[in-house]
Amino acid sequence: MTIHVKNNIHWVGQRDWEVQDFHGTEYKITKGTSYNSYLIREEKTVLIDTVDHRFSQQFLQNLEAEIDLNDIDYIVMNHAEEDHSGALTALMAKIPNTPIYCTENAVDSIVGHHHHPEWNFITVKTGDSLDVGNGKQLIFIEAPMLHWPDSMMTYLTEDAVLFSNDAFGQHYCDERLFNDEVDQNELMEQCLRYYANILTPFSSLVTAKIHEVLSFNLPVDMIATAHGIVWRDNPAQIIHQYLAWADAYQEDRITIFYDSMSNNTRMMADGIAQGIHDVDPNVAVKVYNVARHDKNEILAQAFRSKGILVGSSTMNNVMMPKIAAMLEEITGLRFRNKKAAAFGSYGWNGGAVDRIHTRLMDAGFETSVGLKVKWRPDRDAMQECRQHGQRIAKEWALRPLDSANSRSIINQVMSKPSQAVNQNAAPAITPAPAKNASLVVDDAQSMICTVCQWVYDPKDGEPNQDIAAGTPWAQVADDFLCPECGLGKSVFAVKKSEVNHA
Ligand code: FEO
């Protein structure tokens, strides 16, 4: 089956209605997905991307129904991940000498997956072009880490179609191909879920790449993604949305998530949520049990939030494993501009809350004081939870609150008899360092790539780029590239454990 996209461009991809797991089992797909491949038939015939390897045979069968495979002059691989390059082995078995246009990084990852170094790779860089006849050209734009180091986009002149691969896509399946044809709420929900769970760590690159593409002053009539719909109605909307999401995005929203051994920490979550609502009825509050709710939905809600509250019972003096896993994932996603606080119930030792607090600080959140409750919260302890929520609401408010209303609610709670206050008192937790503390980088300090986490240590230098051992970061040439992900100096930051606060 093919779908006409524009002029001589047809969609020749594959829909996948039943897929539920992506990236192993880390990304739950709730609305299906598609693997979008496009066929351009000008004087030259070009195939843009293929499909997931599970659909190789079906893909070839469909393609052969449309054209003689030997008529394909060029293959463009915008990205080597298996959901896009998966059918290459089957395709190249039929047309083994066809040139494959891709980035230099993609040669490494395509060969790494398909084990055919003899394929006819032609590497391209940003600005390189390929004449396809009829006055049209393909222009290549490298897009490292959107979503792998090998990623690029391809632009077809005259038709003004940007083949963006993962960027601007979404795991969403519909028989209709274009954005204006589908349910808008479903579409934007899946766009946000995709961005929050996959692209957030690369937000600084998203911003830079979009501005770079805009600087070319190329008209964009359509954005043909590699997953989900094609943006033909106001494609700028998703570009603007990405710029907003990439800019330390937050809404007036608080997300609470927890795991609870005996329901006690869940009770605390309820009390805190009520307290927030008491003081700031306009803030959206959602509460999730990580053991029962969709992890990717929780992460998407956290991405949207101005702050998160993370709760766990103490088990063997540590937090519960599902909370630890969530914090690990949140650390990797590198959310910015968000506040956080820990809470939890304990029996004889409340180690979980302290550990959560430390992990939240390490993950870059601006932390507020945590809250511990011993055993099952009684009436007074539930009041303390509610009061805690009220304090959080005031501390995290994005605008002036109705102080008279807030004060009366707090006084009302404070005036009630308290039995458990002392033993349930919040732990003395050191606040996070002030965000505006000025940084001093000395010659011995290591620098970390904020994209792939590779570390430049001055005492080792980088021999592969002729940077001698003992070279401080300040003397590393401006054209230095991270040996791991290929990005420049601008994405490096002082390695956190070595930051000096002046
Ligand atoms: Fe859709 Fe990064 O693959």
UniProtKB/TrEMBL annotation:
The family database entries (PROSITE patterns) matched by this protein are listed as: FLAVODOXIN_LIKE (PS50902), RUBREDOXIN_LIKE (PS50903)
Q: Which part of the chain is the Rubredoxin-like domain?
A: 444-495
Query: Start and end of every Flavodoxin-like domain?
Result: 254-393
Q: What top-level branch of life does the organism fall under?
A: Bacteria
Q: InterPro entries of this UniProt entry? A: Anaer_NO_rdtase_flvorubredoxin, Flavodoxin/NO_synth, Flavoprotein-like_sf, Metallo-B-lactamas, ODP_dom, RibonucZ/Hydroxyglut_hydro, Rubredoxin-like_dom, Rubredoxin_dom
* Keywords tagged on the record: Cytoplasm, Electron transport, Flavoprotein, FMN, Iron, Metal-binding, Oxidoreductase, Transport
What protein family is recorded? In the N-terminal section; belongs to the zinc metallo-hydrolase group 3 family.
What PANTHER family has UniProt attached to this entry? ANAEROBIC NITRIC OXIDE REDUCTASE FLAVORUBREDOXIN
Q: What is this protein identified as?
A: Anaerobic nitric oxide reductase flavorubredoxin
Which species is this record about? Shewanella glacialipiscicola
Task: Report which gene this protein is encoded by.
Answer: norV
